[in-house]
Specification:
Structural class: mainly beta
Mean pLDDT: 82
Largest sheet: 5 strands, antiparallel
Radius of gyration: 19 Å
Distance between the termini: 28 Å
Order of helices and strands: HHEEEEEHEHEEEEEEEEEEEEEEEEEE
Length: 359
């Protein structure tokens, strides 16, 4: 069984709200707004799926799933797109139910103000005539004038990494940078129950958190498998205060989970899928030959989980770690129609205490 996220016309009606939510979370994370207040942007975005900003930059860059990045400057959306790679993304229209590809992620190099370098994560159909032959790509672009919001030349693209995908869902969606490394979270390849057992397979890059050294010279880049055992880590981010990694991993049929990995972790952790789903034993994974048994101590439990059958709760699709509460970690988990929060003390492990949902 798998629960697919469909980005149909119904989502278009909520585009302004999603953009405002993305604005609040992104600016709070970047430090541009101390309170992270939501502000409605008077623009009708088409399938907005992410927002980011270069360090110390007052502009907000909104990612539209079809392959466009738009700039919000001084509260208004600029008329010219910052980047348009719709021809490479090739998002089907209408988007088929369960299709989770598109332009999904954006991250700016720490020295963007000088170099103009930024990275995007998107899916591409290698041969549309043969149905879906999807690859996931990380590409590097360079803005000729980083201080300007003029359109970036799409010809500046350098594909630094790509991997073939077996199904149309579970593509992950985030690229992020920490201390000279670019991180990419990849889902297990899709379908339901990880039929290829890829998340636990050390020979597969799917179901993994990958890490790339930004100093690599050759192409394509060679990834390091930083962690494994993910179903679909659609959104993750690094705590700006201490570098901890927060990962929202979309659940299968029972639990959504948030995993936290401390900044001083040596890596190589196993988050359990598809043997475990949250802190429970997943029926399909428990009997897979060659895999660890359920509840093996090598598996890392999430710090927070919730049942995806709760009212108004669906997939964990985003979040932010608040810095406003001393001596506590607070993580907001965005689902289909609500924001909820959980708190944990210090660096302790174990399931966090959920706070009241915030609609």
């Amino acid at each position: 069984m798998t629960r697919m996220q469909s980005f149909s016309a119904q989502l278009r009606a909520r585009a302004a709200f999603v953009a405002a939510l993305a604005l609040a979370i992104s600016l709070q994370a970047s430090g541009a707004w101390a309170q992270g207040e939501a502000v409605r942007i008077p623009f009708f975005f088409t399938m907005p799926i992410y927002a980011a900003a270069p360090l110390g930059d007052a502009r907000l860059f909104v990612v539209e799933r079809a392959g466009i990045i738009r700039v919000v400057q001084n509260g208004a959306v600029l008329p010219t797109a910052f980047l348009d790679i719709t021809d490479r993304v090739g998002l089907p229209s209408p988007v088929p139910s369960g299709f989770e590809g598109g332009l999904l992620g954006l991250v700016f190099a720490p020295e963007f103000a000088q170099s103009g370098v930024f990275f995007v994560y998107y899916t591409h159909d290698d041969d549309p005539s043969e149905g879906f032959a999807i690859v996931s790509r990380v590409a590097r672009f360079t803005a000729a004038d980083p201080a300007s919001s003029d359109a970036v030349d799409a010809a500046s693209e350098t594909i630094v990494f790509q991997v073939e995908q077996p199904f149309i869902n579970h593509k992950g969606g985030t690229v992020a940078i920490r201390e000279g490394y670019l991180y990419l979270g990849l889902g297990d390849g899709g379908s339901g129950g990880d039929p290829g057992e890829r998340a636990q397979d050390d020979t597969s890059l799917l179901g993994k958190m990958l890490r790339f050294d930004l100093a690599q010279q050759g192409l394509p880049w060679t990834p390091e498998v930083w962690a494994k055992g993910f179903r679909n880590p659609f959104r993750f981010s690094f705590d700006r205060a201490n570098g901890d990694l927060y990962v929202g991993d979309v659940g299968e049929s029972t639990f959504e989970e948030i995993n936290v990995e401390r900044a001083d972790s040596p890596g190589s952790l196993n988050y359990g899928w598809d043997v475990m789903e949250g802190t429970g034993c997943h029926p399909d994974g428990a009997a897979d030959p060659g895999e660890l048994p359920c509840f093996d101590p090598a598996f890392v439990d999430p710090v927070y989980e919730f049942e995806n059958g709760l009212p108004d709760a669906c997939a964990v699709t985003g979040g932010s770690r608040s810095t406003g509460v001393p001596s506590r970690r607070r993580c907001a988990a965005c689902t289909s129609s609500r924001i909820s929060a959980a708190a944990r003390s210090g660096a302790s492990a174990g399931i966090a205490r959920p706070d009241s949902p915030r609609s």
